[in-house]
């Protein structure tokens, strides 16, 4: 466990980076310090040799309550805050790092994710959530619009109709509802939180890392490609995968009727 972080926990073991948002007394709401530390942890993970995945969760009873409004310095009477500045300097670097990670980023949601916390969740590649977790697009409650990419992710995941209803009315969504409408991958029992974290970490540590990275690339590109453009990309990526050690091991394991022992190359 790396100890030089104030508001997150960070560890790197077996090629899997674990990041835990660690302000449970404030429901892990975002501060400038926390966002900077998450960016630093993602940079540290990316620079490590043999990285195979990133797993993110929260400490305590909430995942992330969004922006901590108390973290912003009060303005003099009558002045207005330019909220775009915080988005560009604080949230955009975080979003860019999450989306550009070359390995799977898996979020295991341990409690409520609201506002920017919900957008943060949706920016990850795969999301598990415990049954008691809730997703709250709370921006309209304080007269704002979804940010940190939330207005981009939501309609792509659940469709425009559901996205409009969620964003305009701000009604909480349970983990089961989120799974049923395709916003997250899976809802798990509350008691399975630690087991899910461990299972996801083990799966990523044993996976064919290059193939997962290429799969991310293909799926991300599909929205802007025609069918034939996507086909060409698949062919290019498949060519590259055919030269990897993991492909050779996968074929050998299949022939020998045993589980493959992927090395991530």
Walk me through what this model shows.
The chain is of the alpha/beta class and 265 residues long. The protein is 45% helix and 16% strand. The protein has 10 helices and 10 strands. The protein has a 6-stranded mixed beta sheet with strand order 1-2-3-5-7-10, sandwiched between helices. Strands 4-6-8-9 form a 4-stranded mixed beta sheet. α1 links the parallel β2 and β3 (53-58). α4 (150-158) packs across α5.
Instruction: Average the pLDDT over all residues and give the rounded result.
Output: 95
Order of strands in the sheet with the most strands? 1-2-3-5-7-10
Question: What is the rounded Rg?
Answer: 19 Å
Q: How far apart are the termini?
A: 25 Å
Provide the descriptors you would attach to this structure in a database record.
265 residues, alpha/beta, 10 helices, 6-stranded mixed β-sheet, globular, 4-stranded mixed β-sheet
Topology of this structure?
Elements: E1 8-13, E2 16-21, H1 32-47, E3 53-58, E4 62-64, H2 83-100, E5 105-109, E6 112-114, H3 116-122, E7 126-130, E8 134-136, H4 150-158, H5 160-169, E9 173-174, H6 175-180, E10 186-188, H7 193-205, H8 209-222, H9 227-241, H10 245-256
Parallel strand pairs: 2-3, 3-5, 4-6, 5-7, 6-8, 7-10
Antiparallel strand pairs: 1-2, 8-9
